[in-house]
Records
---
Amino acid sequence: MSEQKPKLSEILRSLRRQRGWTLQQVSERCGLPVSTLSKVENDQLTLSYDKLMTLADGLEVDVAELFSQPARDSAQLTAGRPTGRRSLTMPGEGRAFESDNYVDHYLCADLRSKLMTPAISRIKARSIEEFGPLVRHQSEEFVYVISGTVEVHTEFYEPFVMPEGASVYLDSTMGHAYVSVGDEDAWVLVVVCNTHPGAPEGRPEPAAPALEEISS
């Protein structure tokens, strides 16, 4: 019998209540409107990838935790002693999440409060017009092309193409987008750092201005 996966609405509610925060407090931390958060908690709205990253930053978790069972108290992780933490992901395992532009398979998703979020992703968008607005989130990321060819668009640089075997490391607060070029969707390894350099005590930097709601 397969394990029933928790919904984002349940995860958000659980994480918020663990911290004793109201929806208004979550909104102030992540920049998403209270109305959007309320719709997510009531299972009336899904979020795009960049908004999920923004929500994860505000809740001080890695994005994979938004698709896993509610986390237990992680105070031991900050106690300054070795924890012996480890997580193994076998072929075909991981937490899958599909958005308009990507199909992400989050690896080692059972490990909480990670400093890095690794994923294998299939890039669905075939042009920047199809992708839409560039995304931003409070982190840095590394991308390695496993197969196919990827065109990278960023806020401050001219677009460039990465063939199989190429990699890039970039500041995720800079607007960016990955699109597949060629006959098939590209597959990439993505590793996102869950804190941004300069954030005090390893915590996310102040939240970005409020984002507009998206339709379900």
---
Amino acid sequence: MQRFTWPDPPRQTAYPIARPGWPFIAAAAFATVVFALLGMKIAAVLMLTVAACICGFFRDPDRVVPAVEGGVVSPADGRIVVCEKVADSDFFDGECLKISIFMSVFNVHVNRMVVDGRVAEVAYHPGKFFSANLDKASRENEHNALFVETPSGQRLVVVQIAGLIARRIVCGVQPGDELKRGQRFGMICFGSRLDVYLPPDARAEVRVGQNVQAGTSLLGILD
């Protein structure tokens, strides 16, 4: 029987909401109350619907993580759009295995660490806002890269990439932080893309078109 672990303590709430979502929810709720007090029923109902949708966008369910030796879990919910070896990239020296996950506005937006490891560097880069499912988004869009080193000395990179709608990258870790596999480290508001760069000898466990869940789905195995 496969074993699972909890990277973060389960929270005692039926519908967890990520902290970055509360200002958006509060603004929509405030507008709903104002329209209701002014007797603008249609506008109030519309804003109430918007508030409910924002709650859905910022949901943050607890996740269990498969206890697989050398396992690399998905950093995001979404669909695999790239799974291939590349000879050159801006984030990894030499050949590497690149796996990209596209998040739509309907996916959970919270990002989770892919392995147990130490954050060696965090590099933010301003950029454009092309649709995140395009290949050029990896290089030209606004992004935030986490360079991670595992306890065995292997290095990999996780890149948060803003998209056409997503205009805010949230990252709550700093260089030197030690994180567990599946632990929350940030989010991208309203969907986008996560790129993962693994050593060339890593074995992929996903395929293009497959849907994955952050922390729960295995992307690959480090040898």
